[in-house]
Design brief:
Elements: E1 2-3, E2 8-9, H1 12-26, E3 30-37, E4 40-55, E5 58-64, H2 65-69, E6 78-81, E7 84-87, E8 94-96, E9 101-105, H3 108-113, E10 122-123, E11 132-141, E12 148-150, E13 155-157, E14 161-165, E15 168-169, E16 182-185, E17 211-217, H4 222-225, E18 227-239, E19 244-248, H5 250-270
Parallel strand pairs: 4-10
Antiparallel strand pairs: 1-2, 3-4, 3-6, 4-5, 4-12, 5-9, 6-7, 8-9, 11-14, 11-17, 12-13, 15-16, 16-19, 17-18, 18-19
Length: 271
């Protein structure tokens, strides 16, 4: 293990174990989205991902704006939240077109009405000065082709996937549809599984809106606290030519959350 002032480098075998552990632990916060298959009234197709976020003691649903905007008019959008299928078309999403993200507050009444209980959420916070990165970043999402619900035969093909990256790119080369994205290097041709075996890099369809999570450590409490995580972006796409994962920055999401929090507090102060 090597250490510098900003990051800690670890051996590849440990890195893959960290990827698996984070995917397993924090995959519970990730939400698959489904739409009806127009070829079968009994079939639902995966169309995107999102995640539950915790910020200032409130619970939010976060996704990519294009996931909800690309729906045909009147199309039902269903999310599986905490094992419960719920219709989310009526949720009042606050959006950022510049960052291609959408956020909705999940208040207690909505959760109770939809019988959503015992959910897990990803903590959203600014970078702590003492945290040191392990340079391990994991996108967690639900690939569309691998997430199909066929009610006619009782099939539940729901597959959570974790994709790891080891290089963050502050200034992306790809031409993107958003302002000031953050990127991560990913070459599908050199993709491997957790055992180091070469695999097909696959397609990212259905992962849009999923979180990218970074593994960090507080060196002051290395042996007692162990590894921790930090939210590092909302996945929006992959650029083939530059081999860059494109994400909205954490600051973009925090800005929306702050605006919602301010409006709630302002409304409460007037009553």
């Amino acid at each position: 293990m090597k250490q510098n002032c900003d990051s800690i480098e670890i051996d590849p075998s440990s890195a893959f174990q960290i990827v698996d552990d984070i995917t397993k632990s924090w995959g519970r916060t990730v939400v698959p989205f489904y739409v009806a298959d127009n070829k079968s009234k009994h079939r639902l197709l995966g169309c995107g991902s999102g995640f539950l976020a915790a910020y200032k003691n409130r619970l939010y649903l976060v996704t990519a704006l294009h996931v909800i905007n690309d729906l045909p008019s009147g199309e039902a959008l269903i999310a599986n939240i905490g094992g419960k299928g719920v219709l989310i078309n009526g949720l009042p999403f606050k959006i950022s077109r510049d960052a291609d993200i959408a956020v909705a507050l999940l208040h207690d009444f909505w959760l109770t009405t939809n019988k959503v209980h015992g959910v897990h959420a990803l903590p959203i916070k600014l970078k702590a000065d003492q945290d040191q990165s392990l340079n391990i970043y994991i996108l967690i999402g639900y690939p569309g082709a691998k997430n199909i619900i066929n009610g006619n035969i009782g099939s539940r093909d729901r597959n959570l996937m974790g994709y790891s990256f080891f290089e963050k790119i502050e200034n992306v080369k790809a031409k993107t549809h958003i302002k000031n994205p953050i990127g991560f290097r990913f070459d599908k041709k050199s993709a491997t599984d957790s055992n180091g075996n070469r695999v097909d890099g696959g397609r990212f369809n259905g992962n849009s809106g999923g979180p990218v999570i970074e593994s960090v450590i507080d060196p002051r409490n290395f042996f007692s606290a162990g590894l921790s995580i930090r939210f590092s972006g909302v996945f929006l796409g992959w650029d083939k030519s530059s081999k860059e994962i494109i994400c909205a920055r954490p600051e973009n999401l925090i800005k929306l959350l702050e605006e919602i929090d301010h409006s709630i507090n302002f409304g409460a102060s007037k009553t």
